[in-house]
Amino acid sequence: MEIRIENLTKAYGDFKAIDNMNLTIADGDLVGLLGPSGCGKSTTLFMLAGLNKPTAGRIFFGEHEVTDIAPEDRGIGLVFQNYALYPHMTVEDNIMFPLINRKVPKNEARDRAYEMAKMVQLEGLMKRKPKALSGGQQQRVAIARALVKKPEVLLLDEPLSNLDAKLRVETREEIRRIQQEVKITTIFVTHDQEEAMSISDKIAVMEKGVLQQYEVPQKMYLNPGNLFVATFLGTPQINVFDAEVHDGKIYCAGNMLRSGCMVPDGSYKGGIRPESFNVTLLPSAPDAIRAEASHVRMTGRELQIRFNLGANEFRLLVHSDMQIGVGTPFYLTTREKQILLFGQDGKTVGKF
Amino acid sequence: MNRKAGNVIANILKYGVLIIGALFTLMPFLWMILSAMKTNAEIRAIPPVFFPSKFSLENFTTAWKAAPFGRYLVNTLIVTVFNTIGVLITTILAAFAFARLNFPGKKVLLTLLLATMMIPSEMLLITNFITMTKLKWIDTYQAMIVPWLASVFYIYLLTQFFAQIPDALYLAAKVDKCRDFKYLIKIMIPINKGPITTITILNVISNWNSFVWPLLVTNSREMRVLSYGLVQFQTEEGSAYELIMAASCILVIPIMIMYLFLRKYIIEGVTQSGIKG
Ligand SMILES: Nc1ncnc2c1ncn2[C@@H]1O[C@H](COP(=O)(O)OP(=O)(O)OP(=O)(O)O)[C@@H](O)[C@H]1O
Ligand SMILES: [Mg+2]
């Protein structure tokens, strides 16, 4: 089911939790709704679910406008951050609950619940109460309960935030697998950019109630639409520095980083990702910049090095076999098409 | 070695205090039961004797025959059952409204209700009595049942429990096609059965023990309740304490039985302060 959001706004008094959002989600896609805490992700999701009334704007599921339709009639499955399982019911009763309420005969409801449980690998736990399950298992019960009524849209509000790191990775793959198996249009809210990038077909990044960019993960990572998106995606964060452009050359604190750029002269914000440097211990090119490591951190796979150009601090990542310690001088160039320039309004000007 | 000795002393102290506490609580009960078996002379003896000379149940039969206790019991049961059902309905519905629903004036209403708890109950007795007289309800069951159909205390208590249930549960139920009333019946009540049982028991006990109000609004023997049964052994010639004690035993036994059956829920209701989702 295609989802179309048109000029969606949600205001609480003067405060706009969602400001004029437009978004179209293709049938069968898994979209990661990403943004910092308080940016309006849950609000958006709850409006899609019908639990929250939009102040303005319209929502379409396929051809049908659902803006004024009650939650239970929208054909959605919803999974909450804390799962919201009914604590007094067994797993089986929890999964059957949406069907029983829809007057599905008990036997059929039970069959469908077991079918669902098989898919999310919950067989053998059906007679337990939620309290007697692990976080990951509770999470799967919640997904089974959301999917059992065969909804056309699956909405997940930070479904992994209560799990430990290892289980998060496993469960997100699991969610992806289930989503592909059912081929259901899914919106997955998270504030973890890695999580969003790794399982989404497309990512929608929000900040302060405004949709910033909607794009395929790789494209968004490489071509962020603005400074916010650039800084929000990627760990360690993209390096942001004060850039000057003269005669098509990009400078940072007097060091020329790139020449031949078709940009008007002036001051910009520059951005370059930590993995986008070429580092050598001896000068590799005439215009290589000399720098000294001020901090070195070994993470196993790579070294994280900090250095300064003027007042700008940079982080870079190199393979951990490089022999660089604190104070070691090194030479660096930047990889082609990896320097981003942002205008004073934060919008991306170009990639050089 | 030293530490062990310290532990033993701590334990002795701990259990000593608990035993003394238990004795203090149990003593009146024990005294009541023992006294119910004494003769009139024994009960009046100075210094008092602790054990009766012979354990006879004669006082119980005398007391039972002295008044229509069967009738009193039926009346008490009728009042208790109907009042408790009514109280549960009003309490659960009001608590749900205060904890879950949004309506204008909710805060003001709750504050007003809580303020009524400041009114001394003796004052209510008078106004309620006047109301009953005007309604011509004197000497009826409804006079004993209706004025106490809503309790602000229970409403407030249950509202607190209901408010602890996470919003997400309500929203999830909504998506699952479970509207307010069904949600209340299928989710809220089962989850809160501990506190609701506690309220039920408290209300049953207070009905069972209530004395002044039923005495005020009933005149005829047929309408009297159990607690009234105790008074009739207090006559102008003096009190037959051994019979009062025997009657008290009769009065207390059903409550004790109920407690034994529902012990699990009572303890749950008292200890259940945080509900995990
Ligand atoms: N009922 C409300 N009244 C007023 N403001 C609200 C209300 N509900 C949410 N907000 C505000 O709307 C904004 C968006 O809230 P929302 O819950 O959608 O954030 P979120 O992106 O889901 O954050 P998180 O990642 O912390 O869950 C927040 O600033 C919040 O304070
Ligand atoms: Mg949220």
Written description of the protein model:
The complex is a heterodimer of chains A (352) and B (277). By secondary structure, chain A is of the alpha+beta class. In chain A, 24% of the residues lie in helices and 36% in strands. In chain A, β9 and β10 form a beta hairpin. By secondary structure, chain B is mostly helical. Chain B has 2 domains: 55 residues; 212 residues, MetI-like fold (Orthogonal Bundle). Helices cover 74% and strands 1% of the residues of chain B. A two-stranded antiparallel sheet of chain B has the order 1-2. The longest helix of chain B has 34 residues. The chains are: A alpha+beta (352), B mainly alpha (277). Chains A and B meet through β6 and α2 of A and α9 and α10 of B. Magnesium ion binds next to α1 of chain A.
Please tell me the CATH architecture of the largest domain in chain A by its name: 3-Layer(aba) Sandwich
C-alpha Rg of chain A (nearest Å):
24 Å
What's the N-to-C terminus distance of chain A?
Answer: 39 Å
Shape of chain B, please? globular
Q: Roughly how much helix do the residues of chain B carry, as a percent range? A: over 70%
Indicate the low-confidence ranges of chain A by residue numbers: none
Identify the strand order in the major beta sheet of chain A: 6-7-8-3-9-10
Strand order of the largest sheet of chain B: 1-2
SSE order and pairing:
The complex is a heterodimer of chains A (352) and B (277).
Chain A: E1 3-12, E2 15-25, E3 30-34, H1 41-49, E4 56-61, E5 64-65, E6 76-79, H2 91-101, H3 106-119, H4 135-147, E7 153-157, H5 165-182, E8 185-190, H6 193-199, E9 202-207, E10 210-215, H7 217-222, H8 227-232, E11 239-246, E12 249-252, E13 255-258, E14 266-272, E15 277-280, E16 289-292, E17 295-298, E18 302-309, E19 312-319, E20 329-334, E21 340-342, E22 348-351
Parallel strand pairs in A: 3-8, 3-9, 6-7, 7-8
Antiparallel strand pairs in A: 1-2, 1-4, 4-5, 9-10, 11-12, 11-14, 12-13, 14-21, 15-20, 16-20, 17-18, 18-19, 21-22
Chain B: H1 2-35, H2 40-44, H3 58-66, H4 69-100, H5 106-116, H6 121-135, H7 141-145, H8 152-163, H9 167-175, H10 180-191, H11 193-209, H12 212-217, H13 226-231, E1 234-235, E2 238-239, H14 241-271
Antiparallel strand pairs in B: 1-2
Helix pairs in contact in B: 3-14, 4-8, 4-11, 11-14
The structure holds adenosine-5'-triphosphate (ATP) and magnesium ion (MG).
Adenosine-5'-triphosphate binds next to helix 1 of chain A.
